[in-house]
Amino acid sequence: MSLDKATVARVATLARIKVPDADLERMAGELQGIMSWIEQLSEVDTKDVAPMSSVVGHVLSQRADVVADGGRADAVTSCAPERVQLGDGAFFVVPKVIE
Amino acid sequence: MIIEGKTGPWEIVIGLEVHAQVVSNAKLFSGASTAFGAEPNAQVSFVDAAFPGMLPVINRACVEQAVKTGLGLSATINEVSVFDRKNYFYPDLPAGYQISQYKQPIVGEGHLDIDLASGETKRVGIERLHLEQDAGKSIHDQHPQKTYIDLNRAGVALMEIVSKPEMRSPEEAGAYMRKMRALVRYLGTCDGNMEEGSLRCDANVSVRRPGEGLGTRCELKNINSIRFVMQAIEYEARRQVEVLEDGGTIRQETRLFDSAKGVTRPMRSKEHAHDYRYFPDPDLLPLVLDRKWIEEVRASLPELPDAKKARFVSDYKLTPYDAGVLVAEKENAEFFEVVARGRKDPKLAANWVIVELFGALNRLGRDIASSPVSARQLAGLLDLIENDTISGRIAKDVFGFMVETGRDAAAIVEERGLRQVTDTGAIEAAIDEVIADSAAKVAEYRGGKQALFGWFVGQVMKSTGGKANPAAVNELLRKKLAG
Amino acid sequence: MSALTDLTIAEARAGLSARRFSARELAAAHVEAMERAKDLNAYITPTPDKALEMAARSDARLAAGQAGALEGIPLAIKDLFCTEGTRTTAASRILDGFVPPYESTVTSRLWDAGAVMLGKTNLDEFAMGSSNMTSAFGGVKNPWRRRGDARDLVPGGSSGGSAAAVAARIAMGATATDTGGSIRQPAAFCGVVGIKPTYGRCSRWGIVAFASSLDQAGPIARDVRDTAIMLGAMAGHDAKDSTSVPRAVPDYEAALGRGVKGLRFGIPREYRLDGMPAEIARLWEQGIAWLREAGAEPVEISLPHTRYALPAYYIVAPAEASSNLARYDGVRFGTRVAGNSIEELYENTRGAGFGAEVRRRILIGTYVLSAGYYDAYYLKAQKVRALIARDFDEAYAKCDVVLTPTAPSAAFAMGEKMDDPVAMYLNDVFTVTVNLAGLPGISLPAGLSSDGLPLGLQLIGRAFDEETLFAASHVLERAAGFSARPGA
Question: Does this complex have an ipTM over 0.95?
Answer without folding.
Answer: yes
